[in-house]
Design a protein that fits this description.
By secondary structure, this protein is of the alpha+beta class. It is 50% helix and 11% strand.
Length: 123
């Protein structure tokens, strides 16, 4: 009887884990409705993200924008090395704004908007 109880317990734990991962993934994929507005404003205001395809922090930043990342000016430093050297990029991601100001690391939408001079709608 103990063996059957242990088997059921393991099965129930596995099911709970799968359901939990599914719910977590669904929430993680829900895009911020401000993403497209911000991405387009960053482009208009000549802000750019410098990164590398292998950089997990860059992937996290890109994922924050979701599909709207296509509007963000992005320099892939493994392909455009000289641009990154000229911009004195020392880590990834690095955001560089028209003013010359740099922000290193993953940035919140609010910080990016503030630095670039973008107004974000309230949702």
């Amino acid at each position: 009887m103990n063996k059957n109880l242990s088997t059921y317990f393991i099965i129930i734990c596995f099911i709970v884990l799968i359901v939990g991962l599914f719910i977590w993934k669904q929430k993680a994929q829900k895009p911020d409705p401000r993403a497209e507005v911000l991405a387009k404003c960053l482009a208009e205001n000549k802000a750019a993200m410098y990164g590398a395809y292998w950089c997990s922090h860059c992937q996290n930043q890109k994922n924050m924008f979701g599909a709207a990342f296509k509007y963000v000016p992005y320099i892939e430093c493994t392909e455009e090395t000289q641009k990154c050297v000229d911009a004195d990029v020392k880590g990834y991601p690095t955001w560089i704004f028209a003013s010359g100001q740099k922000l290193e690391g993953v940035q919140s939408f609010d910080k990016l908007a503030e630095t670039a001079g973008c107004d974000l709608p309230a949702f």
